[in-house]
Amino acid sequence: MTKSASPIWHPFTQHAVQPDATLIARGEGAWLETADGRRIFDAISSWWVVTHGHRHPHIMQAIKDQADRLDQVIFAGFTHEPAEKLARRLVAMTPPGLEYVFFSDSGSTSVEVALKMALGFWRHRGEKRTGILALEGAYHGDTIGGMSVGERGVFNAPYDPLLFDVARLPFPSAGREEATLDALNAACGKGEVAALIVEPLILGAGGMLIYTPDVLSEMKRVCETHGALFIADEVMTGWGRTGTLFACEQAKVTPDIACYSKGLTGGSLPLAVTLCRADIFDAHYSTDRSRTFFHSSSYTANPIACAAALANLEIWEKEPVLERIAAVSRVHSAQLDRFREDRRFTNVRQIGSIAALDIASSDAGYMAAIGPRLYQGFLSRNLLIRPLGNTIYIMPPYCSDRNELSLVYEAITDVVGEIL
């Protein structure tokens, strides 16, 4: 086996079968470019973070301007204008009832914060609720709490001694919705559940599996009935991916705790927030210092990242972002039709700007052998598409046009045809 000359250990990469990484020098709009001028269409928004396109001018200018004023300051006992403005705007635009904003630096850490908020809430209220519920097939990140509430398997098997127990609910696929709700009701009925955490409307790394707003709404109702907290992990689903600004809007629910990241800065810089109800903050508010919320990172609420996020919010306010998402959605709908009667494909599906389809095969799931072959086939056609095993998905930046997306769908037909 030939090892790469680079000392970098890349994420989710088996270097023995993928020794060389593609060196990217520039990015603009929906495209990446290598130093020698090769252009690659970013059909997955660089792991779902880029919303308006690479290097949106308004966000880039905000980053430059903030860098000239303040780069970093401790956020314990200090604050700064970009964070204050951003927090107020987030409270105003997220579902009503979310009143406090805790900053972190990634989707995984925003989930850690949410879980710690939930457990701290019950402890400080003097109630012994420590159970956490999650959906089968879920993915909530790669930190210890995130892995614990995610699906157990190849992602986290070596780290099992570190993980805490979590009760699983069956995924509410079509025809199985009642089983999910019954399991949720039964689990919450014991009075020991601290919180349910879900990816609203669609599982991400779990295979781009979609469920209905009605089910999401009913899960929230069951939690309310039994007093369990409802955590919405909108790290991927937020910022327009499902067709609305936040996925919870479609179910008309306000989570008790919500996690947002990825598109928060338009994909330019790492930043995350966890929003919560006032009573969750109040449970930690005390002259007793032992009730402090003990969580931080050195770069909490980095001013430059907050400035990028503010610029992103201004783009949402001033530019027709939802119309662009709707246009991408229409292209998906039209292009997916060609695969619905093709027996090589199954479970053709779409929500908002996300489209997905599975290659019909007995070798299914994230570790399906066809996944790396598909990836290389797409890359050879200058397309960044990173299949989840036998699941091909497209999640492009909102600036993508019909012609660019047509290249993607033509490549799916060609690459699968060559492999099969």
UniProtKB/TrEMBL annotation:
Pathway: Cofactor biosynthesis; biotin biosynthesis; 7,8-diaminononanoate from 8-amino-7-oxononanoate (SAM route): step 1/1. GO terms for molecular function: adenosylmethionine-8-amino-7-oxononanoate transaminase activity; dethiobiotin synthase activity; pyridoxal phosphate binding. Its EC number is 2.6.1.62. GO terms for cellular component: cytoplasm. Substrate binds at residues 47, 139, 262, 296, 386. Pyridoxal 5'-phosphate binds at residues 107-108, 233, 297-298. It comes from the Bacteria. SUPFAM superfamilies: PLP-dependent transferases. It is found in: Cytoplasm. Its cofactor is pyridoxal 5'-phosphate. NCBIfam families: bioA, PRK05964.1. HAMAP family: BioA (MF_00834). Homodimer. Catalyzes the transfer of the alpha-amino group from S-adenosyl-L-methionine (SAM) to 7-keto-8-aminopelargonic acid (KAPA) to form 7,8-diaminopelargonic acid (DAPA). It is the only aminotransferase known to utilize SAM as an amino donor. Belongs to the class-III pyridoxal-phosphate-dependent aminotransferase family. BioA subfamily. This is Adenosylmethionine-8-amino-7-oxononanoate aminotransferase. It comes from Bradyrhizobium canariense.
